[in-house]
Amino acid sequence: MIRLARRLTGTTTVCVALGAALAACGTAQAPHPGPPAPTRPSSSATPPPTLVPGPGGAAPVFMNGPRTLGKTVAFTFDADMTADQGPRAAAGEHFDNPALIATLRRLKVPATIFMTGRWADQYPDQARSLGRDPQFEVANHSYSHYAFTGDCYGLPTVAAANMKSDVERAYAALLRAGVPHPMPYFRFPGGCYDKQALRAVGTLGVTAVQWDVVSGDAFATDADAVTQQVLDGVKPGSVVVMHCTRSAAPTTEQVVRTVVPELRKRGYRFVKVSELIGETPGHR
């Protein structure tokens, strides 16, 4: 089942479908606020590159890197888990994908992992391993995978007053799990945002990271179709969105095993999102 992008104008709401089925995983209860995160979540010696904020301090939005600086592509993987999926995990449902991470390591493919705080709470050992591996960078995907706008494919929503604290709570979960330097990048659940959401998270100094290639791996069972969609979509500077949750994206590891050698054959070099942002005019 391939999910394609759609855009809404007028209210500047942008929604990209990553699967309406996630709506069934949560409730409309707003997440509890958590301890604040630093303005720049990464405390590494050299701050990661970010884009300059928009009007009124709104978070800037990054979709892809420059098209003219060589054949680079960034693979990103969303580690999704909603606030109330603990019982399902306890019953044996797998929201992680160790085989995928092992394949990325074996193929030496750097990647950016957008992790929900709830996922980090469920799999702290894996979160810590990813966060301490220089092949990867870990960024924020909210705490509960609740939408930051209405009409986001049925996802329960975060109240405007709780948007900032939800992102802070996610950073706190990443740090608690042992991710030493979570990146100052945020991916909106479902890819849905509007001006209000950008202003809310902009106070944290994050760059909102979207994508220009929808892999279609969410809930897909046809690995060949997902593979073809990625290969057809990648251009120099592309950001590809995929998932590292076995239950919601069972074909992704197989797709990576096929796509990586083919893209390398075409001359592409794999990079993290931070490298693409660092090559983008207007970064700081």
Brief rundown of the structure:
The chain has 284 residues and is an alpha/beta fold. It contains nine helices and eleven strands.
Structural account:
The chain is of the alpha/beta class and 284 residues long. It contains 9 helices and 11 strands. The strands form 3 sheets. Strands 4, 5, 6, 9, 10 and 11 form a 6-stranded parallel beta sheet that branches. The longest helix is centred in the middle third of the chain and has 15 residues, at 163-177. Residues 1-40 have low confidence and may be disordered.
Radius of gyration: 17 Å
Residue stretches low in confidence (pLDDT < 50, at least 5 long) are: 1-40
Largest sheet: 6 strands, parallel
Class from helix and strand fractions = alpha/beta
What characteristic shape results from the CA principal axes? globular
Q: How many DSSP-defined strands?
A: 11
- Residues in helices, as a percent range: 25-40%
What gap, in angstroms, lies between the N and C termini?
Answer: 39 Å
Q: Spell out the helices and strands N to C.
A: EEEEHHEHHEHEHEEHEHEH
Average per-residue pLDDT, rounded, comes to: 88
Q: Give the helix tally.
A: 9
- Our estimate of the beta-strand percent is 5-15%
